[in-house]
Every structure is written in structure tokens, then in C-alpha cells.
Write the C-alpha cells for this entry.
Amino acid sequence: MTVAARASLGLDANSQLESLLNRQRKGFNGLKADGGAQHASEHHELSSGARLFVFILFTQVAQALMSYDGGATQMSTEPLLASGWSTSELGVLGAMDKFGQVATAFMWSWMLRRHDNKVLLSLGLFSKASSCLGFGVLHRKPLMLFSKLCMGASEALIGVWATVWVQSHAPRGSQARWLGLLGIAAGIGNGLGAAVAGLCAPSWGYAFAFVLQACLLFGLWLIMLMSPGRYFQLSDDGSSELEEPWEVADRPSLASSLLTVVRSRLWIFTATCISMSCFVVSGIAYLWENTTESVFGFTNVQSTVSLLLVTGGGGMLGVIFGPKVFDGYLKGFADPNGKLLCLRWCSYASALAALFGTVGLTLFLYVACKASENAVSGWIQCTVLASIGLVFIFVQSMQGTLYGINTESTTPATRTAAAGLTLSMQNVLGYAFGPLLPSIVAGTVGRLELSEPGASVLQVRRVQFSCGTAAALAGTWALLLCSRRAARAAEDLSVRSLAARNQLSRDR
């Protein structure tokens, strides 16, 4: 290929599409090399039974146990307050695991490509189990804070590995479903932790839920020790549109890996989509109890049941039906054209989520402007709950696809770095700012309402939590914007890939 031809295609020496051309040219000129790569890929291929074994135990069950302590901590606030913790200290305690995840995600993404995965994961599971046990049995605040920090560090390791492992080993026709189930497993674990702590803390203390979690994690750790190490290795088969197979000596440094990742527009916008979906989900869930009790007059039981039905049921329906579209109808996202089609459908789902989010947002603002102590009418309650349920269906339906495309938008050598950076982004922009920004809106509106003469406590709470949940629902518009930009980035990649293939055909 001439220099002029390269320039006409807009491909410089560092372009990912240049790597595509090089790899394909090698494929045409050196069938023997291709045969060797295929043999290496077959050598690392796992049987269907081994894949299911690892997927069920070490991605689904492990992810549920990783998220279990989040729900357990939320439902242990009353015993902790009674033992001397202040409200602000509990806020720091709840955020310590997120700090641990963000601080260590890059380190784990670098180590997973350079060290034995089974050894790292075994250390991670043992550390997580020990931290949970320490959190339960140690009662000094600094030790409990340190234990929570270590929990987050271990969660980052399992989270980065699980995303890349599922993307590498899931059947090509079921990737969206397998990746989507990761999020559902985390939600189930969070709910189980909340249920166990809420039911058992009054009788047996808050420590019971964490000791139980530690015992289950130690059991999972023992199972991992007895399993073959090749089950946990990440695939290095180089099956990417973006780069040819790579050797151990060619592995980039962490800094160069992160630089390669952030240069990908497709990665940037899919990671932002994931973060914004987490923002919407976590923001609504965080304010749910206060909102439903203050605005709709629900009891504690009604609030809990409605949370499970609307957010849990909506999310489950999204995970069930989303892969039928992305894996079934659209045939997955294995090539650039598949990524383009899937992201276009993600933008359609985001538009529907924004539409129903706007319906809920408008009704909440209507309740806030009305500022009455009278009961909210039944049709408003039903419409709001149905709208939020539909938002969860459409948001969760595309989660697995977004994770898969996000991981595949980088080269094979930088996928763990991409997964670590995505994990950090969703923790900061999604799970941290999701509860924070709507809470700030609710607090600001509440202070303004209290300054009004004659405002009752019920009126103030109704207005502030209506506005707070409306702010969380407004995140669906940011999700729509990011999904449209991601689709444009995929379109650019598809056009350039087609041009490169046409040029290669002319060269032949």
C-alpha cells in the first residue's frame, strides 16, 4: 500500500485501522501464521461445561457477593448509629468501598495481563472475605473504615476480570445476555444483603450479615483453589477488529494502555453511557424510600415492595428482552457494522427511556408546584410508577450490549485497562454522583421551602423529594445524548473499516 493511499484513508502510523490492514495482509500472505494463531486460540478454548462453571460461580455468584455488603451496610445504619457513629461518618463509611475501587482498578487491570489470573483472583477473594469478617467483628472505627476500603479494592479486581472474561468466553450469540446478567447479579446481591441485614440486625446485630458473607466468600475461595488455573485466564487470541495478536513482550505499559483507551471515541461515549445509566438507576433507588413515603404516602412495606416490583422487575425484564434484540435480531456486535446497528438501537432505547423519564419528571414537578398536603391522586401514582418501571426496562435492556461494545472498542492488549477505567468512571459519575446530585437538589429545594412562611414539614418533604427524583430522571436525557454520540463514533469506525477492506481488495 502506498503512502498516498494511506493518506487518502486517513490512517497514520498509530492508527488502529493500520493494524487491521497489517493483520489482514498477514492473513493473506502467511496462512501458516494464521494456522498457528488458530491453534493457540483452540488451546485456550474452554468447554461449554467449564465456561458455565466459571460464569455461574465466579462471575454471577461472586458478583452478587461483591455487592452484598453494599445493601447490608445501608440496612445497618441504625445499629451503627446506636454504637456511636455519626451521620457524616456513616456517609464516609458507605463511600469507602467506592474509593477502594477507583484507587485500585488501574493497578488490577495492569496486573491481570502480567500475572497468573488464578493467583490474583484467589488473593482477591481471600482479601474480600477477610475484610468482611473484620468489618463484622472489629468495632473500632478506623479498622472498620480500613476493612471497607479493602472490600472495594477486592471488588475492583473481580469486576475488571469478570467483564473481560465474559466478553472473551461468552458465546458470540449470547454476549449481551451474559454481560447483562453481571449487572443483575450485582443487584440481587445488594438486595440480599439489605434483606439479611434488615431482618437479622435487630436480633443478632449488624455483624451477622457480614460474617455470613465472609463464610460464603471463603467457600468460593476454596472452590477456586481446587479449580484449574486455565479456567480463569483471559483470552489473548487477538480476535479484534483493531489489532493483530500480541505477545508477552509486546504488552504495553499501563500509561500507554490508558492513553490508547482514551483516544477511542467509541470507548469514551460507551463508557459515558454506562455511567449515565448507573446515574439514573442509583439516583432513583437512593431516593425511593423517602420519595414514595413523602410524596405518595406509602408505608415502609409498600415502599419496599414497590421498589422491588418497579426497579427490580423492570431491570429483570430489560435483561430478558434486551438480548433478544441485540443478540437475536441484530446478530450481535462482533464486527463494526454490528456495533453500529446495536448502538443505533441503544439510542432508540435511550430515547424511549428519556420520553418516559420526562413523563415521570413532569408529574413530580407538578406535585412539587402544587405543594399541597392532600393525597396525590391514584392516576398520578400509577403513571409515575409505570414510567419509572419503563425507564428501568429500557436502560437495563442495553447494559450488556454497552459493556460488550465498550470492552471491544479497544485493542486486545488494552482491554483490562479499558475495563478498569470504565469501572472507575461508572463508580464516580454513576454510583457516586447518582445519589449525590439529586440529594443536593432535594436539600437545596428543602431549605428554600422551609424559608417560606406557613410551610409544613410534609409539604417541604413532598416538594424536595419530588424535585430530587425529577433530577435523577433528567439523567435519561444525558444518556440519550451520549448514546447518539456513541452511534456516530461506531458509524465512523464502520465507514473507515469498509474503506480499509476495499483498499485491501484492490491491493490483492
Observations:
- The radius of gyration is 24 Å.
- Residues 339 and 405 are 7 Å apart (CA to CA).
